[in-house]
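Model the whole thing, not chain by chain.
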Amino acid sequence: MSRINNDEVLLKVENLCQYFGPTKAVDNVSFDIKKGEVFGLVGESGCGKTTTGRSIIRLYNITSGNIYFKGERICAGTFSYKTAIKEAKSNTKKDIKALKEESKNNPSKKKENNAVIEKKKRDLDAFITEQKNKIKSAIFDHKYSDSRYSQKCVAKVAGEYNKEFTDAKTEAERKALSLKYAKKFKIAKNTRLITKIQMIFQDPIASLNPRMTVREIISEGLVINGIKDREYIDEKVYEILELVGLVREHAGRYPHEFSGGQRQRIGIARSVIMRPEMIIADEPISALDVSIQAQVINLLNELRDQLGLTILFIAHDLSVVKYFSDRIGVMYFGKMVELASSEELFLHPIHPYTRSLLSAIPLPDPHSEKTRERIIYEPLISHDYSVNKPTMREICPEHFIYCNDEEEARYKEEFGL
Amino acid sequence: MDKILEAKNLKISFRTSNGAVKAVRDISFDLERGKTFAIVGESGSGKSVTSRAVIGILAGNAIIEGGEILYDGKDLLKIEEDEMHKIRGDKISMIFQDPLSSLNPIVKIGNQITEAMILKNKSNRREARKDFNKMLAILKSNMIAADKTSNAEKISDLIKVFDKCNIVANQYENAYNNAYTKAIDLSSDIKDALFKHEKKQKTDFTALLGNCAARLKKISDKFLTVGYNDRLTELSAQCHRLKKLSKSEDFENKATVLLGSVKDFLADMTSAVRPSFFQIGYYLLKYPDTSIGEKPIERLNEEALIYLNKNFLDEFLSFEKLGVIYSYNRALKKKKSVLEPLHKAKEYYSGDFTHAEAVKYAEDLSKQVEESIDKLEIIKDNVAYTFRTGLLTAINRYFTCKKRNPKEERRFAKQTAKHDKSLAAGKKVDWKVIPKSVYDLDDLKEDIVSVVNRLIKKYDRYIAESTDIDFDARSLALIEYFKEKASQVVYRVTKNMAKEMAIKLMEEVGIHEPRRRFYQYPFEFSGGMRQRIVIAIALVANPDILICDEPTTALDVTIQAQILELINKLKRERNLTVIFITHDLGVVANMADTIAVMYAGKIVEYGTADDIFYNPRHPYTWALLSSMPELATSEKLDTIPGTPPNMIYPPEGDAFAERNKYAMEIDFEQQPPMFKISETHKAATWLLHPNAPKVDIPKIITDRIERMNKTGGSNNE
């Protein structure tokens, strides 16, 4: 779609891994999301798409990989560095052992070998320090990316303030100015980078606290951010309520008084009030009726235009994802297997898993349904990865497939490239 | 057209603290045998309530305001819980939406599947003996009454012999079943062990071989092992010998081969012809000391039958036939005479009556009806059998509602007065007057009359068909009934037998390695697999009707496609009738034969799948179809504005009018009737009225239909 006309990358996910013990929920997934884009993530349940979303918003501490948001590293894992150290250690040990063995058998070479051993040890030490520094910086970024961002915000406000302060002439003006800026400073100080990413959850019943009124639910984020001004909060809440298609009167009610679609609107309002730049929508419509689903999708589309939102849209319903997203990533068992623009993906699905997913969509058409042949994906039959390991490769422009050399050649041939 | 279930004018509401919610408002539909009937609608449209009414699991605050659901001659809304209990799960079964919450998390899958089999078998055994004795007593009295030569003594002798013969047969059958069970148990254990070995798990072959040798020896029966005895002892000896060689090299291979042959042998033996115990029982009753078990079973069956017929059954049958005819004629005469009181009752229940009177009248009437039933009929006439409970339920319902109505009126008046008073005093009123829920007493009265009417119709048909009855066939069928009951008494489903049946069933619903899965807990299964288990449990009792309440809503696309395929397959193989409930029209395209689109408790459009998808006529169906994004859609989706109406205050006119952009003035004033479009297709919208302005189907749908026709055409070529 033509709605994005910039190349600014808002979110960058780099080799994201999320392991739960031995389970590799997300394994080495990389993708970019451009500003103003809707990026769809599809796959069957248990394929790791929700985990990816949750890792981005830091509901989990990621195992390894990096996530950059607006150029800042917000998540970083240390597992890959640690394994690198371990590997380097054992490799060096092996080498040294071999060399020592050699010197024993061949004393003439002893001196030469000893020098090599020394060098190896030095190299290892250097490598370990390097990796340890990386770990340190990763932990630091992971911990302090928020405060660094708030420092930036404060600096920005301070700049404005200083400029106006020097411009001001009388004492009274200056006093007024400092009063005016006190609130701005406070907000800037409390700004968290992570609040620029918000989440909409799947189940609108379970994700709303039944004991809080709609006003409390929606304004909770503001309150946590240190805003105590009742009037300001109410104003904001009413504004947002109207934005998502509810009315002011709803603010005093409790979630159970709403229908499913309205509840999901409340969920959306709660995430939009923080003026996020990005929204992670985790199956926001799976629990809704078909007619309500359309309402929610249209609402998200409108909000996206009005607020310039970037959306990571997670779902298993392909027709909805196709309708809503600009680019789509298909996940299977923790790995991203295909990534392309939505038009491209549906016109030319390449990976067998994507094809099987597409063939499973039920259509409102009895005649073609009765003759429909579902493609069944059997990873063991479809691929032979025993020798040649697969990676993400670009088959045609902007269309990535997880495949190995042999498959890459085959896919390209199929495509007539 | 073979109707298996029929719902007529069904009305259900729920009592809540805010007033009565009208969940289902006057819907009717038919269910044809072997077809799928889909109910489509938003949540709150009453689709689940309808299906729950069919299986009798409505919530406690549900009130059935009228209507009937006829299944097998019974009105499911009026029969007693005991009766319903026999139908629920056995004849009509249900799959629920969430497979996680419909399985017990702390019981193994296998136990959950076999539970029903074992329990059902237990209760069957208990009932069978009772049924047998009761029926025999009735037969005896009828035979004596029918006999004109006053041979009462001879008849009771015959009956005694018949009974004894069955008892002897039972003894032998019991012994046979025991041996049979032992064989099945052993083969099940062997299969388990072989499966374990295949999966590279540790298996103790030495112990199993010893076990096998001992257990093979114990399998002995007069009939089961005829012709197999030599092989049995030989296999037992082989097992014994091999057990001692446990130190040898290829012991495991040898053991698997031997156990495999034992398994095959047992399968062969258990699948052989079953002896007919009744005739053999008679022979053994006469000559208890003869050693009968040397002949092959087929020959034995034949010879015993000839002997039985010559010496006993011919005579017995002649007397029995007299009894059957006598019973039939007496019932027919009573039926004819009861017709007049029934017609009178119809008039009576149309008029005025008090509760006590009506109940007394009903009791008297049902006593007469009870007498008019031919007790010797095998296929029970359920209309007559459930007449009493049906009538009494309808009467009680009528009076409960009658009593409740004035109370409700009083409460409403009081509350309104209070509300108005506060308003007049200028106070802020933050509560609403709960609307009154008054029951339609005429409808309820109609229900009482319809119970009587149904019986009259049934009896009229009965009398009309009374000229050509094959009494020979009836008498033989009665004998078969006795035999069946007798063998049910000794038919015992053991855990291992149930397990083998369950494993077969699990294979049928597409679960891989059922032998391993049998011992797992629900949490070890994925969502799709859990739903398969739920389906397997629903199929245990081999039901006629399967209700699927949003079975795929909690599952993702690939799994959904698998489950839908599975339900379709089972439907074909078992000739199931399916009620399929969903909110997703895409899902039913492949499943449904007929579709009912429900909105606010009413069916708004009813037709075959082709009618609904290629020629939708109701604006609500249009809205549903056009709010689904498709792979080819890119324009803004048509949404249905607003939400479904609050059914505490059902709208006066068409319930959909408020959200309908094609609504006309009449839609807000008057409910549209069902307009017939074709033989199979009906829709309730004023747009179909001849005077209505012509409205075109939304473009998004016509486009889609065009596209579908194109692709459909190319598929056909």
